[in-house]
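Exercise (ungraded).
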Amino acid sequence: MKYIAKKPKEGINVSDVHPLVEAGTLVVGLTAIFIAIVLLLVFLIEAALYFVPAETEAELFADWLPEDLVTISPSDDRLYEAQMLVNRLSAHWADAPYTFRVEVDDSDLANAMALPGGLIIVTQGLLDEVESENELAFVLGHELGHFRNRDHLRALGRGIVLSLFFAVVTGNDVAGIGINVADVTLRGFNRDQESDADEFGLAVVYAEYGHVDEAWRLFERWDEQRNGTTGIVTYLATHPDAGDRVEQLERLAQRQQWPAEGEVIPLKW
Amino acid sequence: MEDTVNSFSLFFNYGLPILLLVFAYFIGNMIEKGHFRNIRKREDAVHGFPVVSFDTMPEEWRAGSSTMVTGSIVISLDYFKRVIAGLRGLIGGRIKTYEPLLERARREALLRMTESAKEQGYDAVFNVRLETSRLANARRDGNGTAGVEMLAFGTAVKFAGRIG
């Protein structure tokens, strides 16, 4: 056998695809797949909501509390007053399927949330930041609005969707991409829900006090001191801009001819 | 102020990784092209030197003396290649960004082995083998690869007389 020296042939072991083309194909393709999966899951959540009535949900979650919840002392005045206020406000929602329970989280970050089974969690930070009962009533009314639209279950479902994504891509360098795509896709739905909840909240405030004076004063303050704490930034991240909300609420009150002046009730603590 | 905070977090969450990707791509690409140019030049220089993978010496060869020659290279991924390969890892398929990397490693290892044989005055190498081993993990969780070693080795022979 004769030995003939040959130079190595190029292009057999290396695919003839430009790395940027490969990168572009993967990023666009995977983004599309992620969005499709998220939309499918959102659809499934909506279907589940349709088939599980609020009464069943209220029964299932009647005594449920989140495991990581750290509450303030049960004898705290603020807890009692918040619960009393919710009882009064929810009376304006005829045939509400829930028995609303209030818990106060000891976090200093101003926030409030609606959880399954009619559980409303407000943070200590929020209770310290509101300056009148009317302000607090609007926030609580807003949460009641979430229950009415059953947004709290959607939020829960989306949380599950996000953690599912997280589980799939964990240990992967590109974990962030999937999460971000899913998160941004979901955030779009969120803002509409917040506006709807705002409308319901304001209607409840009007029903209770006969006017809407000071109802959105909290958001006005946040809008004025935008350079405030990071807590506010986090709170607003998933919500519409505070200034936009104030404008929307003002327009709504005008349209409905709800009086903008009235007696403001001081806090009882 | 809030806008500033938002743009900062936007920058850190999306801008920085993208910037890093762009840098990694350009620098990695430059190094890769340079390496391939260098490999081709050196392959031309050793062209004609017999390097074969037979595990026994061809009969025509009359060996005077022999020794083992080795050539190895340790090569690492750049950030761009790693990220793209990570995306590929989600759906499977050919990891096209790794292919040129390993091609460089193989050819460089073979070249080093061949050059070593030539330098020591040997005439040919047979029973050439290639081995790859993964080096330490790049991350503490045991994932990620710091790099791979490509080792080429074979038996170099000095001819006693002319080859048939």
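Further reading is listed at the end of the chapter. For now, observe: The beta strands of chain B are 63-75, 124-134, 148-159. Residues 45 and 115 of chain B are 9 Å apart (CA to CA).
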